[in-house]
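Backbone geometry tokens:
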Amino acid sequence: MKNIMKSLTAIAILTLISCGGKEEKKNDGIQIGQKPAATETPKEEPASTVKPSETIDLTNKGVGPIKNLELPAEIDQAMAAKGMEVYKTKCMACHKPDKKFIGPAPTGIFKRRTPEWIMNMILNPEEMTQKDPLAKALLVEFNGSPMANQNLTEEEARQVLEYFRTL
């Protein structure tokens, strides 16, 4: 019986020794003292750090019905007052005048966008976010919250635009 136990123990030890300890070492082609092979992919350029809401683009007129818009030097206060009322009823749910909310703040918008782009964004937000690169980027910046089409007339949109000039 002792011989059988010794034999089984020896077989178990030999089995354990033969099954383990023979791991193949991976060779990634890099050896100590040698430079890596020249198969590295080039690093991508870092993306712009300027947020779309802070990007200045005074050439883009956007996509929509407004192709050219000349603004008079003086602000039409009566039109701006009507625009403020439209803004309060249709836009304030998502846009605060001086701070980022669900959408960007309109204060200072004329330093960053053309009047045509602003009007087209107000009148045609769906197509703008599909076709205009800046509007697409804004959609991403504002967590995919699309601007709701408030179905404003061109006159109402122009009034809102005039109100923005007062901000």
Remarks:
- The chain has a mean pLDDT of 82.
- Residues 2-19 form the longest helix (18 residues).
- The chain is about 40% helix and 0% strand.
